[in-house]
Design brief:
This protein has 316 residues and is mainly beta. It has one domain (19-294, 301-308): YVTN repeat-like/Quinoprotein amine dehydrogenase (Methylamine Dehydrogenase, Chain H, 7 Propeller). It has strands at residues 19-25, 36-41, 45-50, 56-62, 67-71, 78-83, 88-92, 98-102, 110-115, 121-126, 130-135, 140-146, 154-156, 162-167, 170-175, 183-186, 200-205, 212-216, 221-224, 230-233, 243-246, 252-257, 260-265, 270-275, 304-306, 313-315. It has a 4-stranded antiparallel beta sheet, with no helix packed on it. The chain has a 4-stranded antiparallel beta sheet with strand order 5-6-7-8, with no helix packed on it. It is globular, with a radius of gyration of 19 Å. InterPro entries: WD40/YVTN_repeat-like_dom_sf, WD40_repeat_dom_sf, WD40_rpt. This is Intraflagellar transport protein 80.
């Protein structure tokens, strides 16, 4: 089992910086009902792509801040982006119009956004160490946590009642239900003199298998149960693990490191790995307004998104 990779990159004007977010949404009339890939990043634009042939569909919109994270839910019209100025913006996925904005949600950048499984609650994480929960309309519901370091990633439990989030070398679980205490555990190994060997950079929580996967600066990915019991620890990879994502059915796992995607089964054992360096574009597969990025740039995947049937992986 292997991944067949296709590279989609924007023009030199639009690729000024890194791609910080990708998402897959149900398509509209322009794509004949086919799903669309949305990508965003430092260029302050949201770009639209056809999910099957990779054709560029154009720019959805430009915002006045660097986009640090993007999320959608099912067939919702809203694309939600977090920005480096601390705002969360709800953008119409058809017109590109900004419909509403949550101002100064975080001091510093919004680092991560994720809808719960029902699409009713939105969590946000920030450089300021706060984790907040919002309604569909962008109203604050609660500040779930405040920690001492930046929170880089979060994921909802299968029942959408608990959030797992990263904090330095630890994973924290905090529930929305009153009366339940928080859980936390160290998610990287200790180095010499008990000093941790890096921070947790990414995590995901499967709603089917109920397993949590994390990736860290120590070049390992790990699989846990919801109590923090370690079920699998990978051998060290060549670089830090920057992105992890379960397939919707929880049977497969994608692990992203510098210039590579590793495909694993639910127990963590690798099926295959795909080298991302040296990718080239088929000129017929994208709008000629856009050009190819330099191959082998040594970049690490920062965002992963599976299609609902688990047959397509989008990375940015």
């Amino acid at each position: 089992m292997r991944l067949a990779i296709r590279s989609l990159t924007a023009s030199s004007e639009s690729r000024d910086g890194m791609c910080t977010g990708v998402s897959l949404k149900s398509g509209g009339p322009q794509t004949g009902g086919a799903a669309e890939i949305l990508s965003a990043g430092d260029h302050q634009k949201i770009l639209r792509w056809h999910h099957k042939d990779g054709a560029m569909l154009g720019e959805l919109c430009t915002v006045d801040s660097h986009i640090t994270t993007v999320t959608t839910h099912g067939g919702d019209e809203a694309v939600v982006v977090g920005c480096s100025d601390g705002t969360i913006r709800f953008i119409n996925s058809t017109s590109g119009k900004e419909e509403r904005r949550a101002q100064q949600t975080h001091k510093g950048s919004v680092t991560h956004l994720r809808w719960d499984h029902g699409g009713q609650l939105l969590c946000s994480c920030g450089e300021d160490g706060s984790v907040k929960v919002w309604s569909r309309t962008g109203m604050i519901r609660s500040q779930l946590a405040q920690v001492s370091t930046a929170v880089s990633c979060a994921a909802w439990s299968p029942d959408s009642e608990t959030l797992a989030f990263t904090c330095g070398s630890s994973i924290h679980l905090k529930t929305l239900v009153a009366g339940r205490g928080p859980i936390q555990w160290k998610a990287v190994d200790s180095g010499p003199e008990g000093v941790s060997s890096g921070e947790v950079l990414c995590l995901d929580w499967s709603p089917v298998t109920k397993l949590i996967v994390s990736g860290a600066e120590d070049c390992r990915y790990r699989i846990w149960d919801a109590s923090g019991l370690l079920l699998y620890r990978s051998d060290p990879l060549d670089h830090a693990v920057t992105a992890v994502q379960w397939t919707p059915n929880g049977k497969l796992l994608a692990v992203g490191i510098c210039d590579m995607i590793k495909l694993c089964d639910a127990t963590g054992w690798g099926h295959s790995h795909t080298n991302l360096s040296g990718l080239h574009l088929d000129p017929a597969s994208y709008n000629q307004q856009y050009g190819s990025a330099a191959p082998g740039s040594g970049s690490s995947p920062l965002a992963l998104c599976w299609s609902q049937d688990g047959t397509q992986l989008i990375m940015g």
